[in-house]
Amino acid sequence: MADSPSEAEGAQAIFCYIADVLGKSKIKEWDVYLKEKTPSYEDFQVKYKTLIKQAYSSRAVETSKGLSTIETFLIKNPDWFKSSLLIAKKLIEDIASAIDKDFNYIQRPRWNNVFYKHGDEKVMGTIAKLFKIANDNEAKKLKNRAYFGNINKWSPADIYFATKEAINELNETLKEQISVKSLSFNSFNQQIGKLVDKGQLLPLSLKKTTTEAHLVKVNFTRKAEESILGETFVTGVGRENPGVNQEPLSGASFNTSTGDIKYDKKKIKGNRDIYIRIKSGGGRVGVIQFRHVPAVKGEPAKSFKVILKYKGSDSLGGQVNSPVLCSRIMSAADPRFASQLEATFNSGYRDFEAAANKYIKKMGAKLYKTKATFPGTSSKIFDEHMGYLSGVYLMNKVNKLIQDKFKNAKATQHELVRSLFEYVSSRTPLSSKFVIAK
């Protein structure tokens, strides 16, 4: 449900099960792997072969990926293997003290009444269906405009720990709601919260870490989230590093009549991605990045991403992927600017789409089909060309609007960023409890 690969999410469910079987007293034997800069999953696989097969074959673990696919992924990505070990070890050691004392039963070895689910139907599937009912009901209040664009902004959980009690209770709620469809986020969140408080359910959002794991509770109290939001503000606009300006993209030559492009990588200046630098609760430094994805499957695309990134973090803090949704989120703080941003994007996209279609017809389709790259590089020519057209016709316009708005940030600009931060990081008043493992 979030940004990490499905293979990593499936691996985490398996490792949590193995850690559960070993228990808190024996989990330190994993330190031999964690001391390695690039630990080998193949070595781990040899020692824990029986437990790995037991985890995947037992009904306690269910994932959307097959075991061989997950294992191939872990062999090729030792960073994700190490992250999975770190997080599973952290959970088994600190789950009771860091989250809730009612989870202390997981720390005992060979506890067999908890299920580790990723992409399954009984837990994640049921929760997804209940979320849709609540979101549809919220849309009726907002005149057919859904509050959440997708489930990740309600809860970005990648895997769930769930007991039989939690599974049965969620299924009973779904049976009732299939006919009445009266569920609200207030009542749904209350149900999820009670299950978490009783140690029956744990929504876990995974963030890759290769140094030290941390458990962070989100939406457990509104006061804590409001405190984080109150400490979130703009520190600058431009590139990720202070003092580096966000120059408009330029340097190539595009013939609007013929669709020909002359592109020299050494002469390209500027960048089409746009950054607002921020500080948030706890003094964390990061950026909100605006990015247009110019092409999907060789055709112009309207994908507009707003991404939260923290300095020094291996993973994203969250993202949204819609210019309309971005505008709606910001409209609460500044409706005039939100409308300007949406109108500027739409106008720029029309220009970009017209130029891109001419380019694709003239030379882009062949370059995309052959997957041609620049000599001596792995950079695909088609992707670079489409990125340039996106920058010149679309993102340069958005860049100017954002720079003008945020270069001298005051109260309104801080509120605009807070509205984006709240939604992107799944901290809205209607979002559910979850725990970030990072």
Describe this structure in words.
This protein is an alpha+beta fold and 438 residues long. The protein folds into two domains: 1-213, no CATH class; 230-424, no CATH class. It has 14 helices and 13 strands. The strands form three sheets. Strands 1-2-3-4-13-5 form a six-stranded mixed beta sheet. The longest helix is centred in the C-terminal third of the chain and has 36 residues, at 335-370. The two termini are 16 Å apart.
What's the arrangement of secondary structure elements?
Elements: H1 6-22, H2 31-34, H3 41-47, H4 49-57, E1 61-62, H5 67-76, H6 78-98, E2 114-117, H7 121-141, E3 159-163, H8 164-180, H9 185-197, E4 201-206, E5 215-218, H10 222-230, E6 233-238, E7 253-254, E8 261-262, E9 274-280, E10 284-296, E11 299-310, E12 316-320, H11 323-331, H12 335-370, H13 381-406, H14 411-424, E13 434-437
Parallel strand pairs: 1-2, 4-13
Antiparallel strand pairs: 2-3, 3-4, 5-13, 6-9, 7-8, 9-10, 10-11, 11-12
Helix pairs in contact: 1-4, 1-5, 1-6, 7-8, 11-12, 11-14, 12-13
Total count of helical runs of at least 4 residues: 14
Give the structural class: alpha+beta
Strand percent estimate: 15-25%
Count structural domains: 2
Order of helical and strand elements: HHHHEHHEHEHHEEHEEEEEEEHHHHE
Distance linking N and C termini: 16 Å
Keywords:
globular; 438 residues; six-stranded mixed beta sheet; 14 helices; five-stranded antiparallel beta sheet; 13 strands; 16% strand; 2 domains; alpha+beta
